[in-house]
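User: My advisor, Dr. K., asked me to get a structural model of this assembly before our group meeting. I'm new to this, so sorry if the format is off. These are the inputs:
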Amino acid sequence: MSLISKNEPGREVLLMGNEAIARGALEAGISVAAAYPGNPSSEIIESLSKVAEELGIYVEWSINEKVALEVAAAGAASGLNAIVAMKQNGMNVASDFLLNLNLSGIRGGLVLVACDDPSGISSTNEQDSRVFAKLADLPLLEPATFHDAKDMVREAFALSRAIENVVIVRSVTRISHARGNVVLGSLPEKRPAPHFDTSRPLAAMPVSVTHPRIHQRLKQAAEMLADSRFNTYKGPEKPELLILACGAASLFAGEAVSLLGLETRVGLATIGTTWPLPEAFLLKHLRSADRVLFLEEVDPVLENNVKELYADRNMELPRVRFLGKRSGDVPDTGELTPGTVIRIVGELMGATAPDAPSDFETAAKEALESFAPARSLAFCAGCPHRASFWAIKKALALDGRDGVVFGDIGCYSLAYMATGFYQAKTLHAMGSGAGMAAGFGKLGRFGATQPAIAVCGDSTFYHATIPALINGVHHSSDFLLILLDNSATAMTGFQPHPGRPVDAMGHEAPQIVLEDLCRSLGVKTLVKDPFIIEEAAMTIYELLQEKGPRCLVLRQECALVRAKTGPKRRPVSVDPEKCIGEDCGCNRLCTRVFRCPGLNWDVSVGKTKIDEAICTGCGVCADVCPRGAIVKETA
Amino acid sequence: MEKDPYNIIVTGVGGQGNVVGSQLMGAVLVELGYKVTIGETYGATQRGGSVMSHVRVSKAQQLGPLIPPRSADLVIALEPSEAARVLGQFGNPGTVALVNTRPVYPVDVISGDRAYPEADLLLEKIRFLCKQVYFVEATKEALEMGNPILANIVLIGAAAGAGLLPISEDHLARAVADYMSPNLVEINTTAFRRGMRLVPNER
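Assistant: The format is fine. Below is the predicted structure of the whole assembly, which you can bring to the meeting.
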């Protein structure tokens, strides 16, 4: 059951920002939806996949973001409405196609939702996707509330159809992964039949024709958006300070103004149509104030664009002092918080929020320092990645040539931290571990002796590792690719991928088997179970002694998936006679180094014990203990 | 909820169900005519990290997804050291808290590298940072029902029982049916009832 498919116009419901975006697409009558999962964007396509059957739409988890955009573009090229969603990193993957698709244009409606992750809460970077709008000459809208997110997506489709081009909607974590009130609109009854008009090819070339055309289309978009209801102003006619804000920052700004009691002195203009700029709206407000503060996440995109507009029109405008990321008044990295925004606005206006009593502040500080122990990130209890990296660590120690592990994107990204025994030495983009390992494997000619290992998850393998592997095979590079196959896109919520026998809509789908694909390239490929840890470690060691490209699939189901589908594997216990604690000389190997959350160091008796509620019964710790004090029963 | 906006924080450790708990609470309040905004922390924090949901309730306006410092009115904590963390940042002398007493040890504690705060001192600190606090054995109650994940609903029931939230068993049943699944209504309403009984209604 899902609220986003309910045809109950006028009903007010609580929706996640991403669900609101999905609902907006449904109200616009989409036929096609595609994405590669990535937080904070995953729930857009996830929620559409759950209603696909019921509403008769086509939804897929594509192999990567570029293909997702291509799938959606095919729908839009045939006159349908299509939505594609991605996280900020996905924009980079899709951009090659996007920066040609913009030139050809489309004929139906195509909305690309980019969900940015300020502060990198679930990301390796915090890039600002809005720069792509200017780069590609495409309109970009930014919702500030949940209801706006829904309506904005619906209207983005209308705009897309009118200008025959892609429209980008940019969300951020605090909209996408937040929830709020949304009033449902109506769902359309019919969708158009797809037809590709072969008399009108869609080609990016010749640039002499297509490039001027997108400028024309962007101008048309500016005219259509000139009086958009998504640009609003609240405040006095002549504010002492004018705030220009987008997205979640606008909500924080509104609250700061009211908490500081500045409603009659500060004006807040919320900009929903970030590109092209609403010039008349901005010029009107730039004439009203001599201090302008920009509040936006992450880069000074609105700030720079407004300054450009101001420079163009400076002869007719009064002098303005601009305050923002460039002036140092607003942090130029990380997400904005209510606390930061209150401080910034308060300092600029000489106003302060009331403090708590000083003894309360002292106690609060003490609570944070001494009563709230940090929770470092760790693999789950029974996670196969912990076993895999233990095996890699052991094999590399045996090998003794200071081997390098090139990391990749997924839960196992954590392998550069304590929970992965600090094994991974690089962490960048999807598939870049294998690409770098294949490059490193060619450095032997210069005297390099360190062996190269790339790790990569199953979903990441299909997304971007395949070209890197083929490259390494073609160039006979010396490297070992270890595929950490937990049979799930675990990090983002277990979405299916081409290695699974099922698709986004729950239909049976042909499975592309990892090892078959590797072997088809002529690469020696072994498959092992990381829970049989000695064998896994020895296999890695032996493969490290060989030359050329090699693959090892370490296959074991994600512990979170396993917990949902099956019982605990077997009882595991500690024999208190055999565990001699601090006297052992192992220096608490199981709890201090292996660090599975299912193992506790019992301070009172100085021995290890199993936490029955958390232990999944994988039994790997029994093989890690040098004294055989941990006992696993036969599964 | 006399105050507008009324700011609630549901806090705990990844996997304790605070996201679902705050979603159900928010769904009921939307049905009751409130504007509700919930800010959640997702992603990597699912793996054993602190997870906090900010639930903001107002008759008048749609608020931002994060509560300003020192502005929590009600803290519902599924884990006691997480209560200390949240009160340290968002508590004020008027805050009311409901705290599950069962600790979930961080990986640095179970590895023996760090100590978990002593129970008496921790509870005393929490008490100091609130106007009023209810300590509830929500996990114990949930385990008696066969699943520790129900502690979130036990605590929401306790908050309702103490008169802190205008939520009835019927409201919760409707929200579970609408937002989760009709099959889950009975177990959740039972947890809610058990929670209601755990605290005295002093309002």
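One thing worth pointing out at the meeting: The mean pLDDT of chain B is 91.

User: Perfect, thanks a lot.
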